[in-house]
Specification:
By secondary structure, the chain is an all-alpha fold. The chain is built from 16 helices and no strands. The longest helix is centred in the C-terminal third of the chain and has 38 residues.
């Protein structure tokens, strides 16, 4: 356990965000390696994997529900020096992660064909996506155990073990990708199926390592058989925080699905270009996402310890750091967006769509960084509903106008990107207003009771 209620806040942010960011960077490198080999199989394969890949947002919605609930409740317990409650929350997280994993396993196999038929630009894209999903599903189900373990550790202020396990699983994934996709060393190429299988094998190894870590090395939170009986009071508290946070990713799934549906008439190359561009954008967001993940336990522990000024300082210092980082990345995307895309494909149409997407969408990078910071603070305060409200506003103001635009004469893909920039700016303003309200409401009593 690491006490985050003492010492320099910027130092805590950097010390926690750095390993989180490294783990996320390695994860992204895997995605790029995966994309490199899948792209060599053609536009239909790349479009199919990209379309199928947004299923990750559904899984991320459920894993966020678990990890955010665990981080918030455990960090508050750590701030109060209540180890018994931290352990109870951890064990209840194990129960919920098992149930969610089983649900994902069965639901994904049942609805994968329906999902791909709704989004695929052509039959080849649909077939490629279904093939990929069928081998990816076990890996998706195992993500819940990894999210539960990582969230519990992050709540105690410890991030390196989860980062190291994540890095190891990604390295395994990177090694297996060319072997299973292209048949390196074996002569048996599984193609797209190999990409899904590599992810599933790596996730299984990661879960086994995490089980060993908690059994032998972790001492603050630990497995206790008697605490596995469902405690619905803890579930209610976790879900009250976690459900809105998870729903944010569900809205993101809707957002991405609307885009894929709208641009399907432009062909597989357009979907492939957007898929590449959006993956690059996710990589660009890594620094601010890492800071956002660091904010929750830092501010959460200080909130539990009733140190309101340190809670306020955490979010505003994080916003300053994130805004500077994203302004620099915006400049890079404005100068040469094609540089990010041309490594993965030689198809000029795919490159053009991906580069155009990055150049326009980069105008909302600073706003996105601020939104991430606000989201982390809402988690720390134990009320993620404001974050869900701001995300819902974005989806509604984007989806309906985007669908309307797609039916107008002269409609072009770039119109969707400009609309996205406008709606992200609106979301940022709403998030800041809601955060100010939450800080004033939740910290006012704490500040005045101290006086």
């Amino acid at each position: 356990m690491r006490d985050l209620t003492q010492g320099s806040i910027p130092k805590h942010i950097i010390m926690m965000a750095a390993p989180i960011g490294i783990g996320m960077l390695v994860q992204t490198l895997y995605f790029f390696v995966d994309l490199y080999f899948v792209a060599s199989l053609g536009d239909a394969a790349l479009a199919g994997v990209s379309s199928a890949g947004i299923l990750n947002f559904i899984v991320m919605a459920l894993t966020q529900m678990l990890s955010v609930g665990a981080v918030t409740l455990i960090s508050h317990a750590v701030g109060r020096k209540d180890q018994a409650e931290a352990n109870l929350v951890f064990n209840q997280t194990i129960v919920l992660s098992t149930l969610c994993g089983l649900f994902t396993l069965f639901a994904s196999y049942a609805f994968a064909p329906l999902y791909m038929n709704a989004l695929g630009a052509d039959q080849a894209t649909v077939d490629a996506g279904i093939n990929f999903i069928q081998w990816l599903i076990p890996g998706l189900a195992l993500q819940f155990a990894l999210a539960a373990a990582g969230g519990a550790l992050r709540g105690t202020g410890v991030v390196k073990p989860a980062m190291l396990v994540q890095m190891l699983t990604v390295l395994i994934n990177i090694i297996l990708a060319p072997v299973l996709i292209a048949g390196w060393g074996t002569g048996y190429a599984m193609g797209i199926a190999g990409a899904g299988l590599a992810t599933s094998i790596a996730a299984l190894i990661g879960v086994i390592i995490m089980l060993f870590y908690f059994a032998k090395l972790e001492h603050y939170v630990a497995y206790h058989k008697e605490q596995l009986r469902p405690d619905f009071k803890i579930w209610k508290r976790m879900l009250n925080v976690g459900l809105p946070a998870g729903a944010e990713f569900l809205f993101m799934f809707i957002f991405m699905a609307v885009i894929y549906s709208i641009i399907r008439d432009f062909g597989a190359a357009a979907q492939a270009g957007f898929g590449l561009g959006s993956r690059v954008m996710q990589a660009i967001f890594l620094p601010v996402m890492a800071i956002s993940f660091a904010i929750a336990p830092i501010a959460g522990q200080n909130f539990g310890a009733k140190l309101p000024q340190r809670v306020r300082d955490t979010v505003w210092k994080a916003i300053y750091i994130e805004s500077i980082l994203m302004a620099i990345l915006t400049l890079v995307c404005q100068i040469e967006p094609r540089w990010f895309v041309h490594f993965f494909t030689k198809d000029e149409q795919v490159i053009e769509v991906g580069a155009q997407f990055l150049k326009v969408i980069s105008w909302n990078f600073v706003a996105s960084g601020i939104i991430f910071a606000c989201s982390g603070m809402f988690q720390a305060l134990g009320n993620t509903w404001p974050s869900l409200i701001s995300m819902a506003t974005r989806v509604i103001t984007f989806a309906l106008p985007a669908i309307w635009l797609s039916h107008q004469s002269g409609f072009e893909i770039i119109h969707v990107w400009y609309l996205s920039v406008a709606t992200v700016t609106l979301q940022m303003l709403i998030s800041l207003l809601l955060l100010r309200h939450q800080l004033n409401r939740q910290l006012w009593t704490m500040e005045h009771s101290a006086n």
